[in-house]
Amino acid sequence: xxxxxxxxxxxxxxxxxxxxxxxxxxxxxxxxxxxxxxxxxxxxxxxxxxxxxxxxxxxxxxxxxxxxxxxxxxxxxxxxxxxxxxxxxxxxxxxxxxxxxxxxxxxxxxxxxxxxxxxxxxxxxxxxxxxxxxxxxxxxxxxxxxxxxxxxxxxxxxxxxxxxxxxxxxxxxxxxxxxxxxxxxxxxxxxxxxxxxxxxxxxxxxxxxxxxxxxxxxxxxxxxxxxxxxxxxxxxxxxxxxxxxxxxxxxxxxxxxxxxxxxxxxxxxxxxxxxxxxxxxxxxxxxxxxxxxxxxxxxxxxxxxxxxxxxxxxxxxxxxxxxxxxxxxxxxxxxxxxxxxxxxxxxxxxxxxxxxxxxxxxxxxxxxxxxxxxxxxxxxxxxxxxxxxxxxxxxxxxxxxxxxxxxxxxxxxxxxxxxxxxxx
Length: 424
Prior knowledge:
CATH class of the largest domain: Mainly Alpha
Mean pLDDT: 92
């Protein structure tokens, strides 16, 4: 830690030496109690802080980021008034609960650190933090526990928001042949965009719970219970229409896996798939026997295992969709193009239910032809396919689910790309 402080001071001096009197220097790190200063959770919060800082719009001249076991730090040289910057960063440090862990220092052109206008508050009692630190009023263990709680809540909120945003992005992707989108309600008479938006909003508390259960590695039983409660909330929001039941199962598993990865390292998708495998055979056997849902009937008739099989097999098509989103990232409509790609390869249980093998084959064949068209022609072709599928009462709901999961995985890949990479 002493070496880190010396290195930081030397870097600050060097950056200020190259600046004029109109500049100031921001030093950004996190206040993390205890010996462990750098974890996946702290890096996720640090990245959020750095992103929020960038959105303030100050003119940057130089930025240096250090990611070591002693903590992640950034030094940012600005062409800006030091007091204006300090005021903005004080507001940022109070922007949401975990932002209390942000430590933004502002040095003027002469190297003097500006003081806070309002003293920081203690994580435990809310009193002046400096007084509690001097008197050691609460003890290290209590401060560490409070810090960890803030980090866990932040991670749960961040990933729940990512899941909710993925559902909204999937819904608003247009065109989506046979599905509810901004053009029409597809082959559905009981669903529309406002209904899906209500449903997605009702699931946010469940998404947060799923992450929290993963952070604690709580297991399948509490996740299953939370899922049943989420189904009740969804049906209450939609007056009994099944808008997102598959997403409650699949996204819940993935969010659990992401939470577990943040706490314990490892592969989020692997954790989710392993959890699904614990009762996949039981679920599929029961579906074969009872045949009380459309998915169960399709399983019995065609052997398509739907969401349960997808999860137990490692979310192959969801990951494929995330890959296709990345491949189309520079296109005008990456979501629609990725959906088309998934429609080619997925044995969509919704299509099998509505149109049998002939319906599935028709959609896969048309999607394959569209995928080989020049990119500029594909959206118009998807609109034409939409009209055909509405006429045939075909809806690729399974592909839509893969798009939503792919969007969530795409967000996770972006969020987690630096979480476990750390220098010595």
